[in-house]
Specification:
about 170 residues, mainly alpha, 2 domains
Amino acid sequence: MMAIANLSLFLGDHRASSSVLFWMLGGLGLARWELLVVPLITVLSGWVLLQGLGRSLNALMGGDQTATSLGLQVRNVRLLVFLIASLMTGVLVALCGSIGFVGLMVPHIARRLVGSEHRRLLPVATLLGALLMIWVDVVSRTLIAPEDLPIGIATALLGGLFFIFMMKRS
């Protein structure tokens, strides 16, 4: 699939190709206030639903048997969480492009700060993710100014370093 996308970029109109390439590398530079209504509603709704599923997510941390013995419909909860997370992710990727590693780094950091209880973990991870994105966006915009370094490149570099650190630590 990526080969087809790359071939289309290579053979296509260069102005359109640069816009698509920038989206594929991820960035906040194309986001405008009027485009934020749908993502805001989607993410806030999803966040509230996930926060409400905090106890169920905690039960799932104990394994399927433990969750089932606590009366949890494991398959239904997993499907619901998958659908909510997919919808939230899809809307944000449509707006900002692919920005990798944030969703992998932030939960590890948040879990070290507040533990694994999801009703505390979700707000902290949300704030840390937002702070990380703001910080990386500022660095990406100033590092090679007046050009914008696509934020996906910066988060990939940071994420790679983070996971090398995590691997060496364990």
